[in-house]
Amino acid sequence: MAEPLLAIEGVDAFYGRAQALEEVSFEISGGATSIIGRNGMGKTTLCNAIVGLPPARVTGSIRFRGEELVGRPSYKIAKLGIGYVPQGRRLFPSLSVDEHLRMISARGGSKRWTVERAYELFPRLQERKRNGGAQLSGGEQQMLAIARALLTNPTLLIMDEPSEGLAPAIIEHLVETFQKLEEEGLAILLIEQNLGVATSIAERQLVMVGGSIFAETTATDLTQDPELQRRFLGVEPLAENA
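The structure assignment produced for this chain is given below.
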C-alpha cells in the first residue's frame, strides 16, 4: 500500500507534567480532513506538534511522506511541504502585505505559488498591498496568512481556526477558496469549532476530546444528527440550510 501523506501514531504532548495530547493516531492520504472539538481539547497543541513549534514536549511518531518530524526544527518541517496558518494569524505589523509575501517568495524552491498568483487568489490583498499587517481587517489578515502559507508551496496545508472572528460573508469566501485549493490537489487539515465551515470543507471529520481522537465521523452524519453536534461540540444543531 502507498505511504500516507501524514501518519500520526501514538503521539503524546506535555507542558511540564501536564499532558495535552494522549495517544493521538490518524492518517491523511489527501483531500480535506477536519478536526473538531471544544476549546481546550488539544487541537492547537496537535498543530504545533506537527509543525515543530514549542513549547510542548512531544513523543510518539509524526511522519510526513515517510519522514519522521518529531525532533525536527520547524523551518526544516516547512521545507518538506507543510504550510501552516496559525490561530491568530501572527502577522508582522511593521511589514506591508507585499513585504510579507515577497519575504517568503524570495526563499526559492518550487514556484508553483508566486506572489502574482496569491494576488489572483485574493484580489483584495493586491488592493491593500502597501498597507501594514495591523492596518488590515480581520478577513484581510486571514487572506494574507493563507497566502503567506501557500507561498511555501505546500503539499499539506494546516489551518487552525481560520474562520475565528470573521464576518459570515468573509467566511463564505474563504470556504470557497479552500474548496478550490482542494480541487487543485492540495491536502488540507482543518482545525475548526465552526461546524458549518468544518463540514463544508471536509467530509471526513475527526472529533477531539480530552487530548485524544475520540471518534471519526462524516460531515453528512454530523449535519443530520443534532445529538452528535451537542455531544461533540456542545452547540445547538445546524440549521437545515446551513
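Interim note for the steering committee: The beta strands are 6-15, 18-28, 32-36, 57-64, 67-68, 82-85, 156-160, 187-192, 204-209, 212-218. The longest helix spans residues 168-183.
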